[in-house]
Amino acid sequence: MIVDARGDRCPMPIIRLARAAAGANPGTAVTVLWTDAAARHDIAAWARMRGHRVVGEEVAEPADGHQAWATTVLLGGAGTTTAATLR
């Protein structure tokens, strides 16, 4: 599942991620495309607090001349406590 939040400012990437995750099953991978630098830390914090796991980050296709990244979150189920740290 892809959430394209390129060009969105905080907190919209997280709000869009949360909406997508709400209707998804545990084990679903959600990739968020983003340009706002705050999203890197916000996505990791959101995942940790909700029992999900960040499983990857890579450079994505730029949007409107701005560098973009793609962060993938693996949705967990009840009782999942795994967290990831991004640098």
Automatic annotation (TrEMBL):
According to the lineage, what is the superkingdom? Bacteria
Q: What Gene3D superfamilies does the annotation carry? A: TusA-like domain
Query: Could you tell me which PROSITE patterns the record lists for this protein?
Result: UPF0033
InterPro entries given in the database record: TusA-like, TusA-like_sf
Domain UPF0033: from-to ranges: 3-27
Q: Which SUPFAM superfamilies match?
A: SirA-like
| Family stated for the protein in its record | Belongs to the sulfur carrier protein TusA family.
Protein name stated in the entry: Sulfurtransferase TusA family protein
Q: Which organism is it from?
A: Actinotalea lenta
